[in-house]
Amino acid sequence: MAATTDAAPALGPGIYRRKTKTQRVLNALNGMVAVPMRDPFALVGLAIYVVFVLVAIFAPQIAPYDPLEILFADGKLASNIPPLTDDHVLGTTNLGRDIYSQLVFGTRSALIIGLSAAFIVAALGTLVGLLAGYFGGLIDTIMMRIADVALGIPFLPFVIVLAAFLDPSVWNIVLAMALLLWPNTARVVRSQVLTVRERAFIDAARVTGSSTSRIIFQHVAPNILPLSFLYGSIAIGWAILTEASISFLGFGDSNVVSWGVMLQDSFLSQALSRGSYHWFLPPGICIILVVVAGFFISRGYEEILFPKLRD
Hints:
By secondary structure, this protein is an all-alpha fold.
């Protein structure tokens, strides 16, 4: 009976069928999705993300008020109302805005920033790593030197300078992460590509006359997708944490409700000295949960990709 190979399931004695590009990509994606099912930490991280995604999708139905609406009660400004009073679960700000509504709608800003930055960082880093690792030589040298320059630029000061020159916007965070954080992904992907390109199935693809682009994107890329997903999950937490830091320092967009803007408002209003913990603790806890969720998922993927870490 003929033995099967990794690249082709047997149809009968001596007859094999090559896996298509779609099948290889689906196999890689199935492996990535199966990781949270194998690791309890990754499962918890995925559950946290799912909860926040549902809150972001149904924010208009969950939040009782517009997050920027100034509320009045009995003809007076509804400012500094304590939590669990009337319809205000977390109370109101000093400007009469509902804190719970701001917290719910802040989830949208956090996920938009996090997912956008993660996608760009993972995609750009993966592309650079693929090209540098596969071609090597001068292309590898140039790309890695550019990566060294990007790694040498301090991240937070760069974001502050960028926000100062451009109009305040959450997209400044995404742009800064796209410019500076891709080298981390690119270096790891490159190191993996250096090993994948020497395997027998890559040599077989060259012998059969496959083009360079076909080899890179159809044969090499599916083998490094889990690494891209790993660094993408880490980038989500970094992006949200960065947005909170920039907004807290006053360089964020005050017209966009986010957890960082909530922390800045509470700080400027001296919420801590007044004991208004219901104002700044909820957004702080949400930021921590998102960052921890990304760490849990990355931990699960690391143990699957590098089994020796379990020892």
